[in-house]
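Changelog note: in this version the structure field was regenerated for every chain. One regenerated record is shown below for reference.
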Amino acid sequence: MPFKKLLLLLLIFTAFGASPSQAQTKKKAGTPKTVSAKKSKPRKTKSVSVDDGEYYNGHKIYTGPRGGRYYINHNGNKTYI
């Protein structure tokens, strides 16, 4: 008789996934860890004044390798002039 009860309990635990080996591998549902933002070094940027080079409608004009003149639009694409 005790063997039948033990077998029944074992069957119930395995059916619902409550075996001790699975209980140890499940993650605990709790508050997530807060990760602090990585401190980055300040970027060294070259300040560009309006007097440096030519501008067209507020955009700096570049010259391509074959002599074409263009500027970079707000989408990041080249616009030839």
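Spot check on this record: The helical segments are 2-15, 20-25. The CA atoms of residues 12 and 63 lie 76 Å apart.
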